[in-house]
Amino acid sequence: MLILAIETSCDETAVSVVQNGVKVLSNVIATSKQSFEASGGVIPEEAARKQVECIIPAIRQSLNEAQIDHHALDALAVTKGPGLSGSLLVGTTAARTLASLWQKPLIGVHHTLGHLTSPWLEHTEEPIFPIITLSASGGHSDLWYRTGHTKGVLLGQTRDDAAGEAFDKGAALLGLTYPGGPAIEKAGKNGDKNAFAFPLPLHRADTLDFSFSGLKTSLKYTIRDLPDENVTPVLADLAASYEQALCNHLLDRLKKALEQQSDVKEIHVVGGVSANATLRSLVESTFDHITVRFPQNITYCTDNAAMIGSAGFFLVENYGDKAYEPFTTAASLPLSAVVRNT
Ligand code: KG4
Ligand code: ZN
Which band of pLDDT confidence, cut at 50, 70 and 90, is reported for residue 38? Predict the structure, then answer.
């Protein structure tokens, strides 16, 4: 099954052609992130305008790189939400228009289901359920117990900021540019991760939820207490310690989930934050007795359309024609809509 997928939930205009949920024939990603380096975060109105500029060229390029004509497509898939309304409207309008013009069915995909499916892209060995998935991005941080591609339950979610948001806000406090994850990773590369102490949120609480706002506040006070509030002399140590603290919290939640779910066969870590090298090595070294997977390619960690094409394929596989039912675009969509528990 050949799907043309479109993802425009934030500041990436992504279009991909995916075969049978796994083989990526093209993966075009036009990003407007550089425009937001100075502002420290995405400006929704500007991101939507960039989406309008990029969407048609990205669709053309994706079909060209896949070396297919639209007649060969079996369906289209598009991110229906959550995300920035203006950005989402560009992608869903393009997808609806093309689906109607080309007379192809259209699948609306929850953005988070795309991330959950991303380790399937170009995999070499078939993953085995049940799987615990940690999904950590700029807009969400959640923990899932999955019994199938589109089946499972939500174990925990963030009570305040998302993990990527904590990187982004922390970077702004440190005077680094957006997006904060790669900036903090780079700044802390040769720093001492134990130089500054940060708390381990919710460690003793009876929950699998996340909370990042306390870590961010702790960073703010650490900076306030520096001589003259001057970050420069300790930037590497501070970035490394803060990055380690964010990763420790993610790892702590994973460990707790594994203690509670004894039948788990694999651990998956997905979303923009799964590109982080410290997180990857922490998870790999902690769970050396169980298969750990990340998206095969760093471009499948951050927002991309290949994951939406993959999720669209599995929705059709699991729900048949129901996967094509009409949907509305929504800036906010509940996590309960990501997977089903039966
Ligand atoms: O999945 P994504 O592209 O978009 C959302 O769905 O939100 O994730 C973007 C987030 C940003 O907050 C960014 O700072 C973070 O992922 N990120 C990273 C890294 N690369 C991207 N965080 C930590 N380390 C990285 N290397
Ligand atoms: Zn995302």
Answer: confident
Rounded to the nearest angstrom, the distance between the alpha carbon of 203 and the centre of ligand 1 is 24
Question: pLDDT tens digit string along 297-329?
Answer: 999 999 999 999 999 999 999 999 999 999 989
Query: Apex CA 248: angle with CA 138 and CA 256, to 5°?
Result: 100
Same fold, 2-118+299-337 and 125-295: yes
For 2-118+299-337, CATH gives 3.30.420.40
Q: How far is the CA of 102 from the centre of ligand 1 (A)?
A: 34
Long-range interactions of 323-329: CB distance < 8 A, separation 24+: 323/107, 324/75, 324/105, 324/106, 324/107, 327/80, 327/108, 328/80, 329/80, 329/81, 329/85, 329/88, 329/89, 329/92, 329/108
Is the whole model's pTM more than 0.85, yes or no?
yes
Assess contact for 50 and 79: CB atoms under 8 A. Answer: no
Q: How far is the CA of 273 from the centre of ligand 1 (A)?
A: 5
Residue nearest to atom 19 of ligand 1 (CA): 181
Question: What are the pocket residues of ligand 1 if the criterion is a CB atom closer than 6 Å to any ligand atom?
Answer: 10, 137-139, 164-165, 167-168, 179-182, 185, 271-273, 275-276, 302-303
Q: Whose CA is nearest to atom 7 of ligand 1?
A: 138
Ligand 1 centroid to Cα of residue 139, in Å, is: 9
Atom in ligand 1 nearest the alpha carbon of residue 12: 3
Nearest to 117 by CA among 5, 263, 257: 5
Record: fold of 125-295:
Nucleotidyltransferase; domain 5 (3.30.420)
Residues 6+ apart with CB under 8 A from 285: none
pLDDT band at residue 33 using 50, 70 and 90 as cut-offs: confident
Domain ranges in the chain are 2-118+299-337, 125-295
Q: Which atom of ligand 1 is nearest to the CA of 162?
A: 12
